[in-house]
Amino acid sequence: MYARTHEILNYKVYLTYRGRLRVRKTRIKHHEPNPSLLKKYIVEARHRWIKGRREEAARLVGRTLHYVGDSTIISPSKDEELHDRMERECSRMDPRHVIGDLNLFKPVGKRETLRVLLESLEEGPALSALEAVKRTLSTSFSIISSTLSPPTAPERFRELGGRCCEYFRERRRLILLLSLLLTILPFIALIFLSLELRPAIAFASLIPTIIPSMVAGVSAAILYRSRDMNTALYSARRVYGMLPWIIVGGVISGLITFGMGYMAIAISPTPEIIMTIIAYLRLFNTSEWKEIKDEIDWFTWR
User: Fold this and answer.
1) CA separation, residue 202 to residues 78, 132, 263 (Å)
2) Roughly how many angstroms between the first and final C-alpha of the chain, as a whole number?
3) Does the model's pTM come out above 0.90?
4) 241, 206 contact by CB (below 8 A)
5) CA–CA separation, 170 vs 177, rounded Å?
6) 8 Å CB contact between 230 and 301
7) Residue 143 scores a pLDDT above 90
8) Which residues, including other chains, have CB under 8 Å from residue 216's CB and lie 6 or more apart?
9) What is the pLDDT of residue 293?
10) Which 8-state DSSP code applies to residue 45?
11) Which sequence spans correspond to the domains of the chain?
């Protein structure tokens, strides 16, 4: 986020000595950037690129590469003189005289792209201005060539996606059953708990279970009815992403209702948890899915 000075800012929540929550703006470190934040920038840039929002995507990539370049130079808080000297030396270099010595790598997919980013950040400050420029150029080429590449999945990934879709089609009945159970069971528990408590309190007690179950259930229904690879893979990815949260939500809701003294309702998330485990073992435990699951939102699959 930009302030009037165009510095990139972040927001932090803190607790005052009076026990009140406050939010303050903090400047994000340039020379020691947060890898998780830069990963989010890259993934979000790719999403916007796929949606046709090219300028926004390019802006996010540029912001990330700004951090990448700064990370190759020592922070002024550690050695201001060395920092200033290296920046002056870097500014005098012509990239055209360096590019011939680079080993350029064009990653394919999210995993490879983020690995290039993290490896560059993990190397820390360069020992010389020349090394800093070389690493910045190499990393920039890799990230730009992947993040701003055509959205259509390459043939190797499309083959894996096709096998996953065929695997899902062979298990359509299981997917339909998963959809129905994950959609209906939380509301059955809600009805029974509402007989004992006010509906608002009952809903609040079961909301950790209801939300992930509903998202997974609806996504499973879309997967069941899907006729194209793009819809099937994106729906499957949403189901897969919700499975851990269904278990966590079921445990939390169970503990809440158990604490209220409703033992029978406390164990009501058990069928959902069992169904979640079965879904993982029967649907998402293949080598093809494990290889492709992190690449789905990096491409379109038409």
Assistant:
1) 55, 58, 14
2) 34
3) no
4) no
5) 14
6) yes
7) yes
8) 178, 182, 238, 239, 242, 243, 246
9) 95
10) H
11) 31-147, 155-296
Nearest to 230 by CA among 50, 44, 43, 40: 50
pLDDT tens for 254-266 read 888 888 888 877 7
Written as six digits, the tokens of 299 are 């491409």
Q: Three-state SS string across 212-234, please?
A: HHHHHHHHHHHHHHCCCHHHHHH
pLDDT of residue 80 exceeding 80, the answer is yes
With cut-offs at 50, 70 and 90, classify the pLDDT of residue 134.
very high
The backbone torsions φ and ψ at residue 154, rounded to the nearest 5 degrees and listed phi first, read -70, 165
284 and 240 Cβ atoms separated by less than 8 Å: yes
Q: Which residue has the tokens 């995507």?
A: 57
Compute the distance between CA of residue 98 and CA of residue 81 in angstroms, rounded to an integer: 25
Q: Are 92 and 280 in contact (CB under 8 A)?
A: no
